[in-house]
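User:
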Amino acid sequence: MWPQLYEWLALFIKWFHVIAGIAWIGASFYFVWLDNNLKTPPEWKKQKGIKGDLWAVHGGGFYEVAKYQVGPEKTARKAPLV
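Assistant: Predicted structure:
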């Protein structure tokens, strides 16, 4: 029984590794696309420290993405430390 358990565990780990790699590459492509499509923000956003701005539509929802060179001065709530 132990050899079969070892084979199933090895198979699971290999497939997990493949799926994690695909997700990693997909996220990398997304952030490269995001950085390449950021537009210069209006002056009032620049004063808040925003360096790039993007509006996107996905699944019927509108998303506003803002790139800060450093973290924003104020956040809506305290960010969790994960």
